[in-house]
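[audit] Reproducing an earlier prediction to check determinism. Same input, same settings, fresh worker. If the tokens differ from the archived copy the diff job will pick it up downstream; this log only records the rerun itself.
[audit] input (248 residues):
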Amino acid sequence: MLALLSEGSEELPSIDVLTESSPFTEESSSSGEATEFTKLLLDKAGLSYDLSFLPWRRAYRYVLEQPNVLIYPLAQSPQREERFAWVGELIPVNYYLFKRSDRTDIVLESLEDANNYRVGVVNYYVHHEYLTARGLTSIQPVNSSLQNFKKALLGRIDLFPMSESGLSATCRRDGIDCEQFEPVIKLEGISGSLQLAFNKDTDPKVLERVRAAYDALVADGSHARVFAKRFREIDAFNQRWPEMRGRK
């Protein structure tokens, strides 16, 4: 299937769009902002596309292998910089290791201290790559963040990485009391932003058109409108845990 540009003079390939099921991507009255913006972006760019929800591990592998594939929300990191063609930021993101609030026995002075505890991660998430590269050997991979929440509540893991807005959104979606968790240490090496990114061999004309559409949606305020709730959640987290902003 081919998509016609608005000028009607050029054809571009249809885009495969990949994401996973999460509060950030599942569209409803209170969530799904990333998907809402991605659809708005591709419509603005005049591209046709097929959107699929896949397990993150499968989506991540596929976008690395096939051109003209877009994935979101993808955390940007130094290790990933050359692997993808980046479009733009969805939201800023900071990652922390969280513990159960009643676990006063868990104390971290540095990230290396996390090796003394069982750490749950999600397969192929940026924190999985980061903690593995930092030499942590106590990692237990799972397929979703919700599994880590449940394992922490059951005492099967001690720590799990999560972003500030991701924590509150998951708690809200799954009826979990967020007061049961608190941040222990910030993962500075991967804190930055969640992005839209293409396979690096994607048609350059596709990249040009999508990047131009992204700039237009930022300029006209659409980006700020779609993600307003997420920005408020990030601000609320920073106000509650101001000491975490510089801890690493």
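[audit] rerun output stored. Observation attached for the diff report: Helices lie at 33-45, 56-65, 126-133, 145-153, 164-174, 204-219, 222-226, 228-240.
[audit] end
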